[in-house]
Amino acid sequence: MKMTAHRMRRRYRELLRDEIANIVAAPEDVDQEINSLFALFQNYSASR
Hints:
The chain is an all-alpha fold. It has one domain (2-46). 81% of the residues lie in helices and 0% in strands. The protein contains two helices and no strands. Helix 1 (2-23) crosses helix 2. The chain is flat, with a radius of gyration of 13 Å. The N and C termini lie far apart (32 Å).
């Protein structure tokens, strides 16, 4: 079960990076965009 969860998280991470790479202007912007997205989620959950 742990291995399945690990594979699913890895696959989700890959898909997320691919999708974000499609919307940012430059490949080096992917990490910053992911950080911004996670910060948004943290702020949203903290405000609830």
